[in-house]
Every structure is written in C-alpha cells, then in structure tokens.
C-alpha cells in the first residue's frame, strides 16, 4: 500500500497496523519524528520525492530514516518547486536520488543500490 497521509500520520499508522498490512510506503512523509520511528519499527518504508530538495520536514524525515527503509519516487505528474515550479516526470527520480544522497551524506551510487534493493524487497522482484 502506498499511503499519502497529510496530518493524520499516527492515525494512518495505527490503521495499517490494525489491518495487518505488512508492506506499506508512507509517501512523501513529513510527519513527527516519533511516528517515523514507529513506522520504521513496524518495518514500513517512507519515500523520498523531489520535494526533498527544499521541504524541511521531508528532508528531516529522510535524514532520520535508515536508508534501508527509503524508496525513491517522483509522484508524477505533480508540480514541485517553490521559486521555480515544474511538473515532475519519471526521470525526476534522479532529483530524489540526489537530494537523498546530499541529505544523508552518502554517495549517489550507494543510495541507488540500497533503494533499489528496498524496491526489490517490497515488490518481491528477483535480481
């Protein structure tokens, strides 16, 4: 399940836990650190979007989440940016990759390797 929860993070976390869902991605997570810790403890993921270039709450969540619980996405088509707005497209996953790399201080190649492994695990994809 990909879950976009704006300002109802704790309630949504409880709902997915109560439902027994094992594979959940909290899309573009910007919620509280305490709830993020519970998301991670439950074995769920968060996604890094191009908003990680500028959105402070999203950047904090990416900083705090272990890399093995992060996926990269674009959320396209949606508009991003504050000063220079643009419509995202699938290739903008590279913006998510670069932002995640910068935030975590990890090489882009390593972020790509781990987040791809996360994707394979989540969707049961063979190498």
Summarize the structure.
The protein is α/β, with parallel strands linked by helices. The chain has helices spanning 9-19, 33-41, 56-64, 93-104, 108-123, and strands spanning 2-3, 25-26, 45-48, 70-72, 79-80, 86-87. Strands 1-2-3-4 form a four-stranded parallel sheet. The chain has a two-stranded antiparallel ribbon with strand order 5-6.
Task: Please work out how many helical segments DSSP would assign.
Answer: 5
| Strand order in the sheet with the most strands | 1-2-3-4
Q: If you consult CATH, what is the topology?
A: TIM Barrel
| Helix content, binned percent | 40-55%
| Number of DSSP E strands | 6
Topology diagram in text:
Elements: E1 2-3, H1 9-19, E2 25-26, H2 33-41, E3 45-48, H3 56-64, E4 70-72, E5 79-80, E6 86-87, H4 93-104, H5 108-123
Characteristic terms for this protein:
about 130 residues, alpha/beta, TIM Barrel, four-stranded parallel beta sheet, two-stranded antiparallel ribbon, about 45% helix, about 10% strand
Description of the molecule:
Helix 4 crosses helix 5 (108-123). The protein has a four-stranded parallel sheet with strand order 1-2-3-4. A two-stranded antiparallel ribbon has the order 5-6. The protein has one domain (2-123): TIM Barrel (Alpha-Beta Barrel), CATH 3.20.20.140. It has five helices and six strands; from the N terminus they run E-H-E-H-E-H-E-E-E-H-H. Strand 1 (2-3), helix 1 and strand 2 (25-26) form a beta-alpha-beta unit. With 127 residues, the protein is an alpha/beta fold. It starts with a strand and ends with a helix. 31% of the residues are buried. The model has no long low-confidence stretch (mean pLDDT 94). It has helices spanning 9-19, 33-41, 56-64, 93-104, 108-123, and strands at residues 2-3, 25-26, 45-48, 70-72, 79-80, 86-87.
């Amino acid at each position: 399940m990909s879950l976009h929860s704006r300002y109802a993070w704790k309630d949504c976390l409880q709902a997915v836990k109560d439902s027994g869902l094992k594979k959940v991605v909290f899309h573009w997570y910007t919620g509280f650190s305490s709830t993020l810790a519970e998301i991670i403890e439950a074995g769920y993921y968060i996604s890094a979007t191009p908003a990680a270039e500028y959105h402070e709450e999203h950047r904090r969540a990416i900083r705090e989440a272990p890399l093995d619980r992060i996926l990269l996405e674009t959320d396209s088509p949606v508009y991003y940016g504050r000063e220079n707005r643009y419509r995202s497209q699938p290739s903008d996953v590279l913006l998510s990759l670069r932002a995640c790399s910068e935030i975590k201080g990890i090489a882009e190649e390593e972020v790509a390797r781990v987040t791809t492994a996360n994707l394979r695990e989540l969707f049961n994809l063979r190498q």
